[in-house]
Amino acid sequence: MFDPRLLDSSVHLTNLALCQARLQADARWPWIVLIPLRAELREIEDLTHSERTQLTSEIVVSGQAVRAVATALGRPVEKLNVGQLGNVVVQLHVHVLGRRADDPAWPGPVWGFGAPVAYEAQALDLAVESARSVLA
Amino acid sequence: MFDPRLLDSSVHLTNLALCQARLQADARWPWIVLIPLRAELREIEDLTHSERTQLTSEIVVSGQAVRAVATALGRPVEKLNVGQLGNVVVQLHVHVLGRRADDPAWPGPVWGFGAPVAYEAQALDLAVESARSVLA
After folding, report:
1. What is the ipTM of this complex?
2. Which residue of A lies nearest to B78 if distances are taken between CA atoms?
3. Can you name the CATH fold of B4-135?
4. Crossing angle of helices A49-72 and B49-72, rounded to 10°
């Protein structure tokens, strides 16, 4: 149902009403990926009106979860970034992540920037718990 | 009301219910910028629930307008990209643009990529007309 490239680069957090929320496995940014639980979608326009409203709610709560992850890891974020690109993986998915003026790609976009950095095990646990506490 | 950097890089198209829609003055991509007509906003979470739903509708219609611009200019798009970053200009604004596998930044993001390319006058007129015909 999900493109394996989305699964390989992220960790399951929880299923929301519309999307599965996953933590991007990249310690450089607190970063959640939302993937609607209908696999044939490519664009936001492919969602029904009520699904679009639900997506926006899930983007907002994911932003709150991103802030919680960032704070738990001691690097609170200054700005949220939201992106729906799909140039590489066309299955509809939305990125919600936090930025700081001292992050490696600032002020440019994170997509395609350098190589992911793995979380240390303890930090990953903390990130997952912090995100789930907001999303669940 | 609008950050001058948003105005300088784009051309007014029309005012929708929530946002002013502007054509990004960059001939490399068919690209609309949506700026809510309330200047104190920074993040999607700063919108009310009904404004968030309206924003999503305006993103979808802007995607249709982007496709119309692209087709009018003879370069139909294969994929839409939507982004809300605000790392440089913090006033809330949303980018909706069209991508092709032969565009200069493909498959990476467009933000911060190279320098804008000015439209030729006739192409700009055509782009503005095409976008307005969908948005109006």
Report:
1. 0.97
2. A87
3. HIT family, subunit A (3.30.428)
4. 110
Q: Are B96 and B63 in contact (CB under 8 A)?
A: yes
Tens of pLDDT, residue by residue over A77-97, are: 999 999 999 999 999 999 999
Q: Is the pLDDT of residue B3 over 90?
A: yes
> Which has the closest alpha carbon to A60: A29, A19, A107?
A19
Q: Where are the domains of chain B?
A: 4-135
A81 to B83: CB separation less than 8 angstroms, yes or no:
yes
Rounded Cα gap, residues B103 and B79, in angstroms: 11
Q: What is the distance between the alpha carbons of residues A80 and B84, in angstroms, rounded to a whole number?
A: 8
Inter-chain CB proximity A57 and B52 less than 8 Å: yes
Mean per-residue pLDDT of chain A:
97
- B63 to A9, A25, B78: CA distances (angstroms): 28, 30, 12
Whether residue A125 lies within 8 A of chain B, CB to CB, comes out as: no
Tell me the per-residue pLDDT of B32-85, one tens digit each, with 9 for 90 and over.
Answer: 999 999 988 999 999 999 999 999 999 999 999 999 999 999 999 999 999 999
Residue with tokens 């496995």, as numbered in its chain: A25
Alpha-carbon span A116 to A24, nearest angstrom: 9
The closest alpha carbon to A7, from A91, A83, A99, belongs to A91
